[in-house]
Structure formats: C-alpha cells, structure tokens
Amino acid sequence: MQSSVEQVAVEEAPKQLDPIQQTIATVLRSYINNPVISRKDVIAAIQPLTLPLPGVYVKTLLKAYEAFTATARVDELLAAVQSISQEKERPAGTRSESKAPVRREVLKLICFDYVWQ
Predict the structure, then answer these.
(1) Which of 26, 58, 101, 107 has the most CB atoms at less than 10 Å from its CB?
(2) Number of domain units in the chain
(3) Cβ–Cβ contacts within 10 Å for residue 60, how many?
(4) Which tens digits make up the pLDDT trace of 48-97?
(5) DSSP states along 65-83
(6) Is residue 14 included in any domain, yes or no?
(7) What is the model's pLDDT at position 97?
C-alpha cells in the first residue's frame, strides 16, 4: 500500500517543463503577429505549453518540432499543439486519469497452496 501511495505522489508532483515545450512556445510566439495565422489560435496553443506535460505528449511535440524544422510549416506545428490541447480536454471517461492510491478495503488476500508428492 505504501508503494501505491508513493507512486501516486510521484505522478502528481509538479514537474519541470521539457525544453521542447519552451522551444515550441518560443517559435509560436514569433508567429503571433503573422497575418496568415490566427493570433487567437497561437495564444491558445501556447497556453498548454506553459504547464508540464506527460511524456507521451512531449514525444508528440518533439516529432512535430522535428517536422517543423524540416519543412518550416508552422501550421502543422500549430495543429500538433492544438491536438494535444484537445486530447487533454477530453472527458475523464475517454482518457486515462491518474490513479488513486490502493486502499486497504479493496485488497484481498489470495493464498496458493502447493502440494508436493
């Protein structure tokens, strides 16, 4: 039970921003005044980048940034960041949430008896 409580505490502890989040936020800020891209979209995309993201989202951002550096298409980078924002906003039942610690009441003792001949 103690390890379960520790695991939940580690999951919920504040984490540092990944450098790729800061890099992408900086790139998007440089496009705020670009007439081709909506200013509101850029500001909305920067918002989730200011909070620590789970590793799966960071990997997605890294791939999107690598594609951006190869093609210089900011619309694709913006779409990747927006898709992460939409994923985080999905209802709780459709995505995995952090787990609550295991309570003593839900534990069951199961015994196995081996018979040797």
Answers:
(1) 58
(2) 1
(3) 17
(4) 898 888 888 999 999 999 999 999 899 999 999 999 888 876 655 445 55
(5) HHHHHHH--HHHHHHHHHH
(6) yes
(7) 54
Domain enclosing residue 75, as ranges:
2-106
- Helix, strand or coil, per DSSP, at residue 72: coil
CA dist list (Å): 34 to 20, 29, 50, 76: 22, 10, 21, 15
pTM as predicted: 0.64
Characterise 66 by phi-psi region: left (phi > 0), alpha (psi -120 to 50), beta (else). Answer: alpha
- Phi, psi for 34 (deg, rounded to 5): -75, 125
115 lies in some domain: no
Which one-letter DSSP state was computed for residue 13?
Answer: S
Give me 97's structure tokens. 């949430």
